[in-house]
Amino acid sequence: MKTSKFLTSILSITLTGVAIAASAQVSGKHYTISNEHRVKAIQDTETPAQRDARMAWWRAARFGMFIHWGLYSIPAGTWNGKQVPGIGEWIMNRGSIPVADYKALAAKFDPTDFNAHDIVALAKAAGMKYIVITSKHHDGFAMFDSKADPFNIVGATPFHRDPLKELAEECRKQGIKLGFYYSQDQDWTAPGGAAYKTGNHDRPDHHWDPAQDGNFADYLHKKAIPQLKELLANYGEFPAVIWFDTPTADMTPELAGEIVELLNQHPNLIWNNRLGGGYNGDTETPEQYIPAQGYPGRDWESCMTINDTWGYKSYDTNFKSTETLLRNLIDIASKGGNYLLNIGPDSKGDVPQPEVARLRAMGKWLDVNGEAIYDTKATLFGTEAGSLSKTEKDQDGKPKFIPAWNWRSTTAPDKIYIELFTWPRGSFHLDSVPREVTGAYLLADKNHTRLKVTKTGSGIDVALPDMAPDPIATVLVLTTGAPYAAVKGVRAAS
Ligand code: GLC
Question: Cβ(444)–Cβ(469) under 8 Å?
């Protein structure tokens, strides 16, 4: 039997009731089916149907709230009277702040304005379906009650409250999922914690204070893994998501495997591609950008700030417009991804008003048009997103993708949604439609007044009113019968 057929037949075998989604190494006549992981993660062992079930709520959600909140909100971008460049939560690293000086911030942290109900209500008003909050960022400060390490918000501050516990209770009440971001690798205040290099931190471990020195495995065994156990055990049905960040070479496959063994005890958990140790997790995590064509066949989530910083900075007022934020959400949904949009509360626990205003405006649009975003699939077209330049190259020397911003599309089983950014004169034209169009109306029109559809060959023209109902994005709904292919008795591509 030819190797390739041999491999295909073997790979299609379901062994011990579990499909092995594996890379097979064939050596001579013997072969070993093995995943690249000594400790198999759920993604290595579950069937596609099991994975679809586990990811279902997350894929339908499309829109989540990221919260970056911690001690860094006290300096808020300024240290010893000087503004420290870069994102606010990196101030300890970029400012080369000694461990003892940074840890002294805890005694000043008393965010009495923090109100879990209001934050969860804001997420809901924005149309967000899940929240991911920093439980411990790279500075090593735990925003939760941790017995594993005293440098935490309950034990080391006058606040003495556990915001994650309060958020969990509110998310439960208000029907929204809660996830935890955890910096499993970088930890700038725990001996042995890793550090990415900034500035002149030229030592091999990029530390800037001898108090940071120690053994990475010891840090993992004494702090990170015990805290992950606390986060997975102490908040009821949450976390629904664990959001790892910034892995380094210190995170060997063996050490990552110890964390995976912990994650495997929570079979509904969703976790991202930033654990390290060769594990890709469930989701790609493009940061501050939207991939030109998404990641076909892979779950992905674009995380983005509303201004330019994740953690609060008092002087970062570069807030994106509501138009940009909404069109980002629509663009991402049209490519089959999720939008994780960040807020950065200040040191009193208040959310910056410009962020509140934008999120509420997004929610108003979603109140009318959410059907075109939630629980939809990616576009059936694709060319609307833009095209590859025939002359310009990107930084990798490949043809540069030039985005177009006239319209996007999302898909439901019996509808095609067209989100119109520029309002066409008279009618909207499609050269070809992969489904039989049975009617058309504007989603914002409560009466769903039928619009005139003219078929031109394999395409259509839909007559539109002179004025766009929404200046940012108006949704045109094309009602569709079964996909053409199904009409001919062939199962249409999903
Ligand atoms: C980067 C930053 C980190 C931030 C994360 C959000 O990894 O290092 O501070 O939390 O992006 O995606």
Answer: yes
